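Q: Could you fold this chain for me?
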Amino acid sequence: GLRDTAAIASARAAEVHGLEVLDYGIEDDANNFTRFLVIGLRGSELPEGVAAKTSIVFVPKRNEVGVLHKAISCFAQRDIDLAKIESRPFRPGDLGLGEAVLTPAVAESPAAKRPRLEGPKDGAASRLELAEPGAQFEYAFYLDLLAPSNAPSCQNAFRHLEELTRFIKVLGTYPVEGVLFPPSVTPGRAALPPPHGSLHAPLVAPLRIAIIGFGTFGQFLARRWVMRGH
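A: Sure. Below is the predicted structure, expressed as structure tokens.
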């Protein structure tokens, strides 16, 4: 195999692809986690008793004050806990939704009327022009819910949220603790992950490693490799 190439991945990925694990827990913050998700056209049903998390994305109907508060209230009213809220910008029209409806207060705001850069027209150079009132960016909101999407409370919350949004999509439901779905398991039946004690750091031959750049992260890597006997 390649001796000059490495990858950061899960222990499960190393097992599936026959990779040699050089080190575990390389993060410099114990609270730092990277999520690895399997994306497919058909979801897998979780077995009973497995704590579930659901990820959704939505775009509000109106750009108005308090719109996010109203949206997450759909879940608060039904005692559904949120684990994550994140906003991502997109240009109006990128999602095929048209532009958001502006309330009078937002349409008359200085931000809505500020000049924005327009592209060249008829061979003319780019220039600043006063555009029609409207935002240069809109925002899609990504939420993680601590509940399965097929729960009655979640279904009611989604119906409520549809009244406030012009786009909503359930990205998927998956186990909170990272339950594995190996290829040998049929959809609808899951295999629990092996206990942590079964993951042992492998023994590898010492490597000669050069670190270019000896800043904070470089020193961290050097300590790690020395601890591993390299």
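A (continued): The beta strands are 52-60, 62-63, 82-90, 101-102, 116-118, 127-129, 138-145, 165-175.
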